[in-house]
Design brief:
The chain is α+β, with helices and mostly antiparallel strands. The chain is built from 17 helices and 15 strands. Among the domains are: about 130 residues, N Utilization Substance Protein A, Chain:P, domain 4 (2-Layer Sandwich); about 60 residues, Nucleic acid-binding proteins (OB fold (Dihydrolipoamide Acetyltransferase, E2P), Beta Barrel), CATH 2.40.50; about 60 residues, DNA polymerase, domain 1, CATH 1.10.150. About 40% of the residues lie in helices and about 25% in strands. Helix 3 crosses helix 6 and helix 11 runs antiparallel to helix 13. This is Transcription termination/antitermination protein NusA. It is found in: Cytoplasm. Participates in both transcription termination and antitermination. Belongs to the NusA family.
Length: about 400
Amino acid sequence: MENLALIDSFSEFKDDKQIDRVTLMAILEDVFRNALKKKYGSDDNFDIIVNPDKGDLEIWRNRVVVADGEVEDPNEEISLSEAQKIEPDFEIGEDVSEEVKLIDLGRRSILALRQNLISKIHEHDNTIIYKQFKDLEGEIYTAEVHHIRHRAVILLDDDGNEIILPKEKQIPSDFFRKGDNVRGIIESVDLKGNKPTIIMSRVAPVFLEKLFEQEIPEVFDGLITVKKVVRIPGEKAKVAVDSYDDRIDPVGACVGMKGSRIHGIVRELGNENIDVINYTSNLNLYITRALSPAKVTSIKIDEVKKRAEVILRPEEVSKAIGRGGHNIRLAGQLTGYEIDVLREGAEEDVELSEFSDEIEGWVIQEFHKIGLDTAKSILEHDINDLVKRTDLEEETIRDVINILKEEFEE
């Protein structure tokens, strides 16, 4: 029968999209009912019988027999003479069930039905994909580079699902070729026009956290907990770890002998420098550890303003600040405190903000970015070094130094 032939013609959807027969039949019934509404104005008096085992589908229209010439609604009523052509014994008031063939719907309706069926199957497929990846948000996923665009890399997984890795979600040193396998976390999944948009990220802190779970057995087993991760992607990261078992050294377990365990993670992140520190609820100790590899002399904490004033020996200051100010910035993010670095013997130093009437605010901010918050912290640096580390012109830096020198010469 024609209905069966139509169902069989869509078997590729069941195979390619892994739609079970029952679901396919439900979609078929829905599509046929829409076609019936358009053809007859209503589908209320139609029975659609599906047989998932045989892949069979039948459509029956139910009408009431009325006297000849008294048919008001040809969809719900049939004249006695027409009913008796189907079966001679029909009488007025009886119900007539008549099978509807596909050809009765008309060629145009059949073409529209086919298109609607394809659309419904794709919509079902997209819903399944959306739910599948929504459950994977925040988890590591691997896919293959299919196409490289200016603003994004398009990936395909083993099932042919498209995943987008935008430029801003890539580590700066990332370089991909077609066919490369790429790991990242599924950051977001949205439905746009019934099509799921899946975004991958390699710069999110949770990607590093999930790499720890994947690469370090004690983290995977829950013996070691990753308390917090902060990153400057491709440059530096700090990871605070803890263990409820005193017999386990969480830092040692994560790093491994000569860095053997963490080496794979560092390589995955484009040689991102990863500091692993022991988490502690002792705030002084936590800030001290966060500033590693610098050795802190003393700390003064203002818990209300969430600021920490850290005293270090002069030779430790550059370690605390780090290249480009990365170390001190990440230490602040890890602990939740704004950290001010002071040198030993710099009690007579002056905060840079005190010169705001002579030095423009944006210039002061440039020095803050590299951890230089006081007059002496700037005066102790070579001008060429300051030019390299900031976005300031040499002339601007010389003007600032002259202003600061006047302060101490008075």
